[in-house]
């Protein structure tokens, strides 16, 4: 067992546990976006930063990826942490304002405006879909491409992948609403995030055994009326 | 080549080579690194070879083609040994004359380097101020060795330190020597090399350990590692074998970027020769110790210089950093313990063993021993590779070695450490260049890039340039690094266009701090340094852009206008130079610039001899 101190409270966790698991064991809330139980931690969104160490050596690390170390002193809500989280949320809102998840997180942290030029990029490259596809669906159909500002998620060469089973797992897990189904008439779509991608249910005729994970599907309901 | 089967074999070979070599034979040394070839060294080699053959001088005059010597401003240059005569900027015709004069053992006086201050001619290389003020322990080997011939390296004491280490037969002694020498990693972070090796040596050797040479040099304007690899690949290889012997590593990797074709070529040849001679591979020199080095070519992503990203790249995955701990020395390539050192660090190892740790520790300052190579570029009179002891002041590097500013401009700042570094203003030029002082001043040592800036450089523009580089080269994994650099660029662009506000400046500062705090790898954590350091020392330039809508250095195009003052004599030079037809005026009359047509390229200012063009 490893003993560490979180916000002044001692806690012992098993070797290999992350700071996030240790903090949640004690009940300290740490906001997360790219972390979901069942998928390996990736540390892309940086929302779960906590402060470790003391004095000039104190630094921020992501709780979801940093392993618990013996005697480590962790602060989950120091002013430095809060300041960083608010800035991250501002950045998230500036790129993906229409995501309910992000809006909720921002509201919970008292972030009511963002000061950057507003963009509607949708995808925040949190990598949940990539990990979902690889780890839970065992498909590895999509992955990251490019680097820096040209980084994006997709299949190799943008060709419909043979490995993809059109399970929709990527859409299900997406916090930014980018891949949500709009059925056959994108103009009637409710969330409107994803005309640029071909949703699997468009090809429903070709796959009669396919299940739509959205039950009831908003788009289907609209077409029924 | 005969394979050497014992240390005695090697020593007899070395003494035979050294007695056969007559140092008194006049030798023409032509440096032909990438930079030298670009300025025409290949032509000189052709001319020299032809002249030597035509005049039947092949027995009396030797020709040696080496790596870059460092004085890149004066390339293509020629050095004549044993006199040490240095000829700068040699043309093809001059080359033929040099051969003639060397054969007669005379000096071609009118082609020598001329001191611009005193106007006197300097014959010997070591008397030229650029070389005189350096301590060239690593770079001086470049001019003595033809990198394509392993015997040339052995002739210059090469691999004798390896033999010394094998004779000592005590790995702990080697680690202790490196620790006592106080060598710190030359890649930028300055982690003590001896300590890293000790960690690696203490790791259980279950499935093998790796040593990596990081030659993924990506900073704009920095090329120290390239020159060392091109000029002296065996020095790096020898350092790695010694390191492997000390730490018990079983495999070595040299990770070099594909943009360095000449370095790759020289490395491949050097590795093959070392294997043939029996200095690499199974049972090295009959000691029973085995170690081999593989060459891995990187695709040239800046982030792959970060060690965890480099490991992933070697494994064949996307170059993306991962969380440390576990550190590479615990879990590296394929989960095996791995120690990664920079090219220059490896090149220092044979020097430490040769000189002795205590002698090495005397160079430089306390905690910062040894020499460091900087690539001095930008607005200095003499640019090139400069090797100085750690702790040398910036002033000495810029003014005594670099020769100070070009023309009558005033040097404003020096940017150290590449995109992750910061700008140090001229009034702090007395600080010594070492890891600790530079980071206190808000910059970093980095791998050794040093860009000199004068008052024609706009600091907002510099910050914008580096942010543009970083937003493209961030791996994109951490949201704050990817989006943070993009947003910082966006704000800097606004400021340079004159749309900036004081609120944006405040936001820029906040954002830079958060990016520094919350990213995972060293590159992300230092990505805001260009912004933070320019804001710290040159805030008034930012304010001039925002409040006065003015670029004090006359660089940001949206904020400057070109106009012609009454000094104009109507010579029409500018009129001819203007590609936009924006300048009008009759001969011998005052000219006029049409602002609606002017694209602010500055062509008119550069041709005007009367200083008649104002930039406001």
Please explain how this structure is put together:
- The complex is a heterodimer of chains A (225) and B (616).
- Chain A has 225 residues and is α+β, with helices and mostly antiparallel strands.
- Chain A has two domains: 2-108, Roll (Ubiquitin-like (UB roll)); 128-224, Alpha-Beta Plaits (2-Layer Sandwich), CATH 3.30.70.
- In chain A, 24% of the residues lie in helices and 12% in strands.
- Chain A has helices spanning 19-26, 79-95, 100-108, 128-136, 169-173, 218-224, and strands spanning 2-6, 9-13, 49-52, 59-62, 73-75, 143-145, 152-154.
- In chain A, helix 2 (79-95) runs antiparallel to helix 3.
- The termini of chain A are far apart.
- By secondary structure, chain B is α/β, with parallel strands linked by helices.
- Chain B folds into five domains: 24-81 and 85-123, Glutaredoxin, CATH 3.40.30; 150-360, NADH-ubiquinone oxidoreductase 51kDa subunit (Rossmann fold, 3-Layer(aba) Sandwich), CATH 3.40.50; 365-454, Ubiquitin-like (UB roll) (Roll), CATH 3.10.20.600; 459-547, Up-down Bundle (de novo design (two linked rop proteins)); 561-615, Alpha-Beta Plaits.
- In chain B, 41% of the residues lie in helices and 15% in strands.
- Chain B is built from 26 helices and 21 strands.
- In chain B, the strands form seven sheets. Chain B has a five-stranded mixed β-sheet.
- In chain B, helix 20 runs antiparallel to helix 21 (502-518).
- Chain B is globular.
- The mean pLDDT of chain B is 93.
- Chain A binds chain B through residues 42-46, 49, 59-62, 65-67, 69, 80, 83-84, 87-88, 91-92, 94-95, 115-117, 124-127, 144, 146-151, and chain B through 301, 303, 318-319, 322-323, 325-326, 470-480, 482-487, 490, 503-504, 507, 510-511, 514, 517-520.
